[in-house]
Known about the structure:
- This protein is α/β, with parallel strands linked by helices.
- It contains 9 helices and 9 strands.
- The chain has helices at residues 40-49, 64-72, 87-95, 116-128, 144-147, 200-206, 213-218, 222-227, 247-258, and strands at 14-20, 57-61, 77-79, 103-106, 132-140, 154-157, 163-167, 190-199, 231-236.
- It has a 7-stranded mixed beta sheet with strand order 3-2-1-4-8-5-9, with helices on both faces. It has a two-stranded antiparallel ribbon with strand order 6-7.
- Helix 3 packs across helix 6.
- The chain is globular and about 55 Å long.
- The termini are far apart.
Amino acid sequence: MSLASFSPRLRLRSHIIIPARLASTRLPEKLLLNRTGKPLIQHTYEAACRANRPDGVTIATDHEAIGDAVRAFGGEAVMTSPGCASGTDRVAEAARHMTDVDVIVNVQGDEPELAGSAIDRVVELLEEDPAAVMSTLATPIRSREQLEDPACVKVVFDAGGRALYFSRSPIPHARQWDDALLASDPPSFYQHVGMYAYRREFLVRLAGLPPCRLERIECLEQLRVLDAGYAIRVAVVDAPTRGIDTPHDYQAFVDRQRSR
């Protein structure tokens, strides 16, 4: 085989954008909670900074209160429209101006214990698969309660690691249930971990695509991408990140911080 047949993997220029909306239903203004001595958004920012591949981290917010908090700890904040329908739309608005970036990583603002290696992995997936426009993560499901919980989004993917479908229902659905399915190796079931990397140009287009029928039924935005015929790469990680959605979640996070 000639040397010309070898093509090294292209290293892509990547940047993290954290969408940070002030309003939150179950835990009001949660990104500004600071019982650890730092606002929650700072913990997430610092976790994102532990990734090695991206060149920087930007927080895209809809409110000056968050912008002020970010600038107070030395982070970069950009203001986006209060009318953004989703975090993806907010990230896309900020990404439009980053014309020198190849890949945008969307990190949720309420995930302060995110592993930097997980961010690096979603960037690497797009370097490995030039045909994929998006990448994300999954982790094994080992509990039937979790499998049947609609709040736990499931994903199935093919042998090449490309997503086939995402659902709130148990997928694949066992025709005859056997508890051994939960302990199988390789795993039978996977939880979707809601972190995404996008090719920047695709992300800007995605914000203009109308919701598809499956997305409206499942309320899962990633189905819009599959419905439009695009490829999403999936990598498996050992455990999901711990998001902060409720007062109980935040108290548990504070307790973990204090025990360190």
